[in-house]
Amino acid sequence: MENRAIIFFLVILVGAIYHLIRDILQIAGIENVFTEIGHWSHGWCGSYCNYVTLPLDIFVVTASAIVIRRNRFGVLGISIIATLFIGLFMWLWK
C-alpha cells in the first residue's frame, strides 16, 4: 500500500480514537471543549445518541489498526470507508 493510503488510515484511526474518547466522556456526563467539538444534537435518536456510534468507533479503530499493520487495503479498508459513510449519514440526519 502506498504512503498516501497509510496516512489516510492513520488520520481515520486518530479521528476514530478521538470520537470514541469523546463519546465515553459524554456518556460519563463530562462536558468541556473536547466533548463539544463537532457535537450536534439529533432528535431522531434521543438518549440513544450517546451509544449509537460506539460500535462503529470500536470497529473503525480496530480495523484501521489492522489495515495499517497488514499494509493492505482489502475488505477491511472497504468496510472502513462504508462505515465512515454510514457515520456521515447519521451525523447529517436531523
Task: Give a written overview of the molecule.
- The chain is an all-alpha fold and 94 residues long.
- It has one domain.
- The protein is built from five helices and no strands.
- The chain has helices at 3-27, 33-36, 49-52, 54-70, 74-92.
- Helix 1 (3-27) runs antiparallel to helix 4 (54-70) and helix 4 packs antiparallel against helix 5.
- The protein is elongated.
- The chain starts with a helix and ends with a helix.
- The model has no long low-confidence stretch (mean pLDDT 85).
Give a quick precis of the structure.
The protein has one domain.
What layout of secondary structure does this protein have?
Layout: H1 3-27, H2 33-36, H3 49-52, H4 54-70, H5 74-92
Helix pairs in contact: 1-4, 4-5
Number of strands: 0
Overall tally of domains:
1
Roughly how much helix do the residues carry, as a percent range? over 70%
Shape: elongated
Q: List the secondary-structure elements in sequence, H or E.
A: HHHHH
Using only C-alpha atoms, the radius of gyration works out to: 14 Å
The parts where pLDDT drops under 50 for at least 5 residues are: none
Rounded mean pLDDT score: 85
Query: Could you tell me how far the N terminus lies from the C terminus, measured between alpha carbons in angstroms?
Result: 37 Å
Largest sheet: none
* Helical stretch tally: 5
- Helix/strand-derived category reads mainly alpha
Q: Strand-residue fraction? A: under 5%
